């Protein structure tokens, strides 16, 4: 089941969400929050998508295809981090 939520207005929005089973949702939300408000690099998104496969899904795209496309991008992201 896919969901989307966001702030439709300019004011601060507060919400309470309950996810069952929670799995690693808290960690996922913390990680994506650290990505900031800018548009993250595709390679950084690939790392998050692969690390949180049980919590995230790309609508209408088979998971095997997501993994096949994102794995090389995630590898590049991890390689970039190690080179810094």
Summary, kept brief:
Helix content is 49%, strand content 0%. By secondary structure, it is mainly alpha-helical. Helix 2 packs across helix 3.
Could you characterize the architecture of this molecule?
Helix content is 49%, strand content 0%. It has 3 helices and no strands. Helix 2 (42-51) crosses helix 3 (63-83).
Number of helices: 3
Q: How many strands in all?
A: 0
Instruction: Please write the string of helix (H) and strand (E) elements.
Output: HHH
- Envelope shape: globular
Largest sheet: none
Residues in β-strands, percent: under 5%
Structural class call reads: mainly alpha
Helix percent reads 40-55%
Alpha-carbon distance between the termini?
39 Å
Mean pLDDT: 86
Low-pLDDT ranges: none
Radius of gyration: 15 Å
What are the defining features of this structure?
84 residues; mainly alpha; 3 helices
Chart the SSEs and their pairings:
Elements lengths: L24 H10 L7 H10 L11 H21 L1
Helix pairs in contact: 2-3
């Amino acid at each position: 089941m896919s969901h989307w939520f966001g702030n439709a207005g300019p004011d601060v929005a507060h919400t309470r969400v309950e996810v069952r089973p929670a799995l690693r949702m808290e960690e996922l939300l913390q990680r994506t929050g650290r990505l900031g408000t800018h548009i993250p690099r595709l390679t950084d998104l690939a790392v998050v998508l692969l690390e949180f496969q049980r919590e995230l899904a790309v609508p209408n795209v088979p998971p095997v295809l997501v993994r096949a496309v994102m794995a090389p991008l995630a590898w590049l992201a991890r390689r970039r981090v190690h080179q810094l």
